[in-house]
Fold:
Amino acid sequence: MDAFLLIGLYILVFVGLPIAIGCLIYFAPKKLGYPKTGKYLTIIFGLFILAAILSAVFEDQLFTNNNAKELVEEYEVLLTDKFDLKENKSMSGIGDYYHTFTLKISERDKNNAILKIKDSDNFKINNASIESLLHQQQERYFGPRVIQNYETENSYIREYFQPSGRRGYAPTFRRISISKTENELIFEDIKE
Structure:
């Protein structure tokens, strides 16, 4: 029963509301004696809705190497050599968002990134107690920003956690993993 209610709500918001707004945009100027203005405004509104739908559908295909580089370099992992975007995926639901991509990087960029992580003040080696930032219950909405650097059996990891500052809103959690065996960098952005 809840699933039908949720589907009905989706239809109402994502189909009914744009149609209602489109009708209002068309009929209001027409009633005021400007039918051509109503038609043009409706076409512009329709193109805006179409652009929003297409950008949401093709979000993964529109993601570029520059987008990937900007996200990675926000966390002080610099990419100076050429790299390839091997994989890019994103998923979203009500209140949840997950985006991950994999980069094939050069040996030099890999070594520089590993050195940056290992030289951090809070670097923890394999088997150290590592706090799960994503699933912490206290300070989930309020509190300080936390950056955590550590080593696992297979990779070097830098995690970033930023509370949203508002109860009920998802905090920002991002993880950069650099493989020990391959020249790969995996970036994850999780909001749940």
Strands lie at 84-93, 96-104, 123-124, 146-151, 155-162, 172-179, 184-191. The two ends are 24 Å apart (CA to CA). The chain has a mean pLDDT of 83. The first strand starts at residue 84 and ends at 93.
